Amino acid sequence: MATPPRARRSDAQRNRDRLLEVARTVFEEQGAQASLRDIARRAEVGLGTLYRHFPTRDALLDSLLGRHFDALAAQAADLAAAHPPREALTTWLRAFAAQAAAYQDLSAALMDTINDETSPLHASCSAMRGAGARLLRDAQDAGDVRPDVDGLELFALVNAVAWITGHSPAVAARRDHLLDLVLDGLAAPSSRR
Amino acid sequence: MATPPRARRSDAQRNRDRLLEVARTVFEEQGAQASLRDIARRAEVGLGTLYRHFPTRDALLDSLLGRHFDALAAQAADLAAAHPPREALTTWLRAFAAQAAAYQDLSAALMDTINDETSPLHASCSAMRGAGARLLRDAQDAGDVRPDVDGLELFALVNAVAWITGHSPAVAARRDHLLDLVLDGLAAPSSRR
DNA sequence: TAATAAGCGGAGCGGTGCTCCGTATGTCAA
DNA sequence: TTGACATACGGAGCACCGCTCCGCTTATTA
């Protein structure tokens, strides 16, 4: 994640903080596609001010989520050390899915960063993806997960589930179940419960 | 699907046909979120004309896809009669996924119709969903598919896969594999190959 | 306290979805 | 063939969007 550049003037720092605070609640209310103008308005700040602090929507998302993603990457290592591979993987994926469901349509933004290295989200997100891929490989080496899946596919599937739950209240209520179905399906046949 | 109201004036009919033709190619090029203004322009027709013929984007999509969805619903019955439940289900789901991938982001539109009975797509889509749910139940009764899945969840999962493949070329190349992973995961443990 | 770098804010551009209504034209009866 | 009229056309206009640009304000520092 990008280092937060401490502003040189106190009002700039104050505005930045306000924007982040407002952006968080607006994104929670309306999803990751919310109007940036609206965020600026509610932060009682000019639109230019918003764009100066956060040149792109991704930059704003990164400032809000970057440290969570970094934490997820770190957690992957912890889980790998403390739990059997299969358990580590599923626990981690659940945590990731919960994070990806923070704002509606965030999954779309995350998927798009895969192909766009210029996005600030790309860095924090790809580091996290790497961590997940490592957990996957461990579980596959242990024979717990079918070998014909790779990190990209896993990331895509979990994001797909996170995304779909944002498009229907009825489906949202079953997010955990849908995730279970997918994860269960990835289990190696020999290890299937 | 809504009955196609034969226009009373020949120019109206001509414009309607032009719009549908152009809309099909534009949606294929740019996805289901393409600019309606752009469609009107390329059809060399006023924007008002487009909106008179198709009051909403969903109405336009329905006119383009409705009969395909009706055909899918019909195909479900044929498959149920001619094939074992499991095979009927997977064959049908593949056909549906192919259709759902026709235009990028179409899956989002389809998911949204679930909660919006006023959408023209709702009718043709829910009929089709019913047909799929019936195939699912057959397969479950035969013990081929795990019993703790319902039609809504199945629809959501397949749409999720269709959607995600539209958000990354790398993922798009593996659409069939992702679908296999999900369908395989839904197999009843006892019947797993 | 005055100079100045730093930051602010919103007008403006080109785009979107969608509505509304004055105008044009296809159709059909005379 | 020629009107008269229902039908359909087309785009101006409204409110919104993302994003840029630049004249003005203000916090900071000497």
From TrEMBL, chains A, B:
User: In this protein, which residues make up the domain named HTH tetR-type?
Assistant: 13-72
Write the signal peptide boundaries: none
Q: Where in the chain is the DNA-binding region found?
A: 35-54
Xref: InterPro entries? Homeodomain-like_sf, HTH-type_TetR-like_transc_reg, HTH_TetR, Tet_transcr_reg_TetR-rel_C_sf, TetR_SbtR-like_C
Is Transcription regulation there in the keyword field?
yes
Print the keywords alphabetically. Answer: DNA-binding, Transcription, Transcription regulation
User: Which parts of the chain span the membrane according to its record?
Assistant: none
Top-level taxonomic group: Bacteria
Pfam (any one): TetR_C_43
Q: What is this protein called?
A: TetR/AcrR family transcriptional regulator
In its UniProt entry, the species of origin is given as Actinocorallia libanotica
